[in-house]
Amino acid sequence: MIRLRIHLTDWPHRALVLTDTPRPNCPCCGGEGGHAYDYGDESGEYAGTEWDPCHCWDETRRWTLLPLPRLPRRRTPATDPWGPGGYSDEPPF
Known about the structure:
The protein is mostly beta strands. The chain has strands at 4-9, 15-20, 34-40, 46-53, 62-67. The strands form 2 sheets. A 3-stranded antiparallel sheet has the order 1-2-5, with no helix packed on it. The protein has a two-stranded antiparallel sheet with strand order 3-4. It is flat and about 65 Å long. The mean pLDDT is 83.
């Protein structure tokens, strides 16, 4: 059974996608979709985290519903809020 949800993604392009979700009552992962565990290097220091996905869902199952455009950022000139044209030029009381 597929449990679908709408998700906003930014990579590789901005879009609304329909994705599968983990089974909420899965006895293996408890609805989290897999197991994360930390591992160390040969000296025993933390080296990263591995993720083992559960068999109850397929994290690659996704369909793009609506590609969204990337809007350019508005550039505002850097102004001094306490200078002329800002909030106030009088000292605080």
